[in-house]
Amino acid sequence: MNAPILEIHRGITVVRDDLFPGGTKARFIGQVFDGVAEAVYASPPEGGAQTALAKVARALGKRATIFVAQRAKPHARTLEAARLGAKVVPVAPGYLTVVQARAKAYCRDTGAFLIPFGADFPGAPEAIAAAALMTGETPDEVWCAAGSGVLARGLALAWPKARRHVVQIGRELSPRDVAGATIHVHPRKFGERAMTAAPFPADPHYDAKAWEFCLAKRGGGNVLFWNVAPLPRP
């Protein structure tokens, strides 16, 4: 596994995991293919797991199927996943609960493996922690965006003594979801873009929103921000 690349922006150490092929989830999502030919994920249109799964499946010679809300113009992430070889199944109406139900029914009928929301499965936090420790950093404070909380739990394993902050994007999180990190709720919905752009490639629906809070509320010492996902290719 390649060590994450670090940069300094506005005095903050930024983990550029957007430079890792497929982003942070690609570091561990391949585990779902152990003994499995096809893996299925129910994704919001903007979700970064689509491209992570598609990229890893292609590298392993496996099948990836993505259920996603039907849109008149598919999101760039969905289009990229399709270009990488994933089977994309548009779902209408596009409520995430409906998308998840369709994905579950497909797996029941075909025997494919259904990846939990956020790729939150055993071994995922440990893989993230291993990558974090490879940076050689000992931050005083850590920030990241959080959807399922798996990244926050991985960073807690790596740096349990750090002040840990997450910015909630999407569903409501509990302290248990994020291993006791301080939770900040971004006012915009997942499908809405961040109010400002980051000085590095950051997903406007996800990482850029956490960056806004990190800049405004960071404390002292060595502050580290984890940038998760590469921007989709046009």
Structural class: alpha/beta
Task: Note the gap between the termini.
Answer: 27 Å
Q: How much helix is in the residues?
A: 25-40%
Give the low-pLDDT segments: none
Count of extended strands:
10
Shape: globular
Main β sheet profile = 6 strands, mixed
CATH class of the largest domain: Alpha Beta
| Rg, alpha carbons | 17 Å
Number of helices: 6
Report on the architecture of this protein.
The chain is α/β, with parallel strands linked by helices. The protein folds into two domains: 6-23 and 123-227, Rossmann fold (3-Layer(aba) Sandwich); 29-119, Rossmann fold (3-Layer(aba) Sandwich). It is 28% helix and 21% strand. It has six helices and ten strands. The protein has helices spanning 49-60, 76-83, 96-110, 124-133, 150-158, 207-217, and strands at residues 6-9, 12-16, 38-43, 63-69, 87-91, 113-114, 141-146, 163-168, 182-185, 223-227. Strands 1-2-10-7-8-9 form a six-stranded mixed β-sheet, with helices on both faces. A four-stranded parallel β-sheet has the order 5-4-3-6, sandwiched between helices. Strand 3 (38-43), helix 1 and strand 4 (63-69) form a beta-alpha-beta unit. Helix 1 (49-60) runs parallel beside helix 2 and helix 4 (124-133) crosses helix 5 (150-158). The chain is globular. The model has no long low-confidence stretch (mean pLDDT 96).
Sum up the structure in keywords.
Rossmann fold; alpha/beta; about 230 residues; 4-stranded parallel beta sheet; about 30% helix; about 20% strand; 6-stranded mixed beta sheet; 2 domains; single chain
